[in-house]
Amino acid sequence: MSEKRKRVYEALLDGATEGLSGKALFDFVLERCPKATSKKIVRASLLALTDPDVTDRNVLHTIYALAIAHRMDEVGSTGDPDGDENPTEKTPCCGN
Questions:
Q1: What's the pLDDT tens digit per position in 39-57?
Q2: Where are the domains of the chain?
Q3: Rounded distance, CA 96 to CA 93, Å?
Q4: Is the pLDDT of residue 91 over 60?
Q5: 12-46 burial by CB neighbour count: b if 16+ within 10 A, else e?
Q6: How many Å is the Cα radius of gyration of the chain?
Q7: Closest Cα to residue 40, out of 16, 60, 10?
């Protein structure tokens, strides 16, 4: 996982664990990672949803709701705001 993605992921988990949700969680992540886009936050959300170490049902539900709410934010943009990311980068699986 790239360092940028890891920071967004950690901010997302920290905010959700603190009880933030919706816009408050999104704003918290943006405050900690000012260059994060909706797309990056959705990707970090998907990583959290597949992380076997994240077991709190409320945190998972909050992250899922955020991912769904912001999934379409980047659709329709002409450029790729995440052009620096490697599309072939593999998601870590099961702590390997």
A1: 899 999 999 999 999 999 9
A2: 3-70
A3: 6
A4: no
A5: bbebbeeebbeeebbebbbeebeebbbbbbbbbbb
A6: 13
A7: 10
